[in-house]
Design a protein that fits this description.
This is hydroxymethylglutaryl-CoA lyase. Belongs to the HMG-CoA lyase family. Keywords: Lyase, Metal-binding. Pathway: Metabolic intermediate metabolism; (S)-3-hydroxy-3-methylglutaryl-CoA degradation; acetoacetate from (S)-3-hydroxy-3-methylglutaryl-CoA: step 1/1. Residues 357-378 are annotated as: Disordered. This protein is α/β, with parallel strands linked by helices. It is built from 14 helices and 9 strands. It has helices spanning 4-12, 14-25, 51-55, 65-77, 100-106, 122-133, 156-163, 167-183, 203-216, 232-243, 265-274, 302-309, 320-334, 341-374; strands at residues 46-49, 82-83, 86-87, 117-118, 147-153, 187-193, 220-225, 254-258, 279-282. A 9-stranded parallel sheet has the order 2-1-9-8-7-6-5-4-3. β7, α10 (232-243) and β8 (254-258) form a beta-alpha-beta unit. α13 crosses α14 (341-374). The longest helix has 34 residues, at 341-374. The chain is globular, with a radius of gyration of 23 Å.
């Protein structure tokens, strides 16, 4: 596990000290050029849509680049502002993401939108930087992306299974990746993922890894219950430990990434929001899963979270009805069941409304025909 000795060693480097200074001076809100006016609201909830990356990466049948592009564009036009567009990982391990360069070059990039990509190592970052270097600075459209995401497990067991190294070794490898990305004007977001093998992870370990990622220069760290076993009680305990005690981490530096395996995803997000967190990761139609956790279902659905926040103190980007349509569309394209309860209910309501209109129209025709038939001939 990531020991305090390794933490001190990492923190001692001059590069980390510089990153820590930047982190301490960073504003609470995201430092993007275009920020929606509503984001200044203390109860504005940023939704990071992870469907096109985390949601699709485990699909057994390869999803075409054109379909991925269409999904991303639909989500952006529906008002979502942060959409994971892909990942620069080895196609040997994640063949579904092999076409990420094609996707981010093809997709429409709307102003005020951000399309982060997962970059797990230096090789992936170099490939991304090569892609960005080919984008003309004078081009009218924004560059393919302005942000990367890096991640670490919170247990050695999962870290070795996922990246063939311990947590401490993985963090040491990520530090130069984060530094180089920052040097190239890319935002860096971190993620801590739970372990499907060792059971409950010590919240202190989650806190240690989170702090290490922030010290590297990540503007925010997403805490992931990627196997979906958490419930409101365990999520509260974990967040309370991360945000309390020595070197407490403020909620403005955290995000919630919960899966919905046991149906607690929305409830867990509500707990996170009640504790001050204002960024949540979701996936349209509940796309996704965890390849290392048998039975684990997808990410908590974007539609379900939006519906849960309707009429509450919280505001969020995007239009629920449109997102529900997108969820139904992508589920049909993938030939799988829509994983959003709210999405399915909204679609059922729309079908019923359409049927009622059709019945009214047909009924009027029948009455018209009947009246014509009984009209006396001259």
């Amino acid at each position: 596990m990531f020991t305090s000795r390794v933490a001190r060693s990492l923190a001692a480097s001059s590069r980390i000290r510089l990153a820590r200074t930047a982190y301490a001076k960073a504003p609470i809100l995201r430092a993007y050029a275009t920020v929606p006016i509503s984001e200044s609201d203390p109860d504005y909830v940023t939704i990071v849509e992870v469907g096109p990356r985390d949601g699709l990466q485990n699909e057994e049948t390869i999803v075409s680049a054109d379909l991925k592009v269409e999904l991303i564009e639909k989500l952006a036009r529906a008002g979502l502002t942060h959409i994971e567009a892909g990942s620069f990982v080895s196609p040997k391990w994640v063949p579904q993401m092999e076409d990420t360069i094609e996707v981010i070059n093809k997709m429409e990039r709307l102003p005020g939108r951000h399309y982060p990509v997962l970059v797990p190592n230096m090789k992936g970052l170099d490939k991304l930087l090569e892609t960005l270097a080919r984008h003309p600075k004078s081009a009218p459209s924004p560059p393919p992306t302005d942000e990367i995401a890096i991640f670490s497990a919170a247990s050695d067991v999962f870290s070795k299974a996922n990246t063939n190294c311990t947590v401490a070794e993985g963090l040491a490898r990520l530090e130069p990746v984060a530094r180089k990305a920052l040097d190239n004007n890319l935002q860096v977001r971190g993620a801590v993922i739970t372990c499907p093998y060792s059971g409950k992870v010590d919240p202190k370990k989650v806190k240690d890894v989170t702090k290490a990622l922030l010290d590297m220069g990540c503007y925010e760290v997403s805490l992931g219950d990627t196997v979906g076993t958490g419930n409101p009680t365990s999520i509260y305990t974990m967040l309370d430990a991360v945000m309390g005690g020595a070197y407490a981490i403020p909620p403005s530096k955290l995000a919630a990434h919960f899966h919905d395996t046991f149906g607690s995803g929305v409830a867990n997000i509500l707990v996170a929001l009640s504790m001050g967190i204002r960024t949540v990761d979701t996936a349209v139609a509940g796309l996704g899963g965890c390849p290392y956790s048998p039975g684990a279902t997808g990410n908590v659905a974007t539609e379900d979270v939006m519906y849960a926040l309707r009429g509450s103190q919280y505001t969020y980007p995007g239009d629920l009805e449109t997102i529900a349509d997108i969820g139904a569309w992508i589920s049909e394209k993938l030939e799988k069941e829509n994983g959003s309860r709210a999405g399915k209910a909204i679609q059922a309501r729309k079908k019923e409304a359409a049927l009622m209109k059709e019945r009214e129209r047909d009924g009027g025709d029948v009455e018209s025909i009947a009246a014509h038939e009984i009209t006396p001939l001259p």
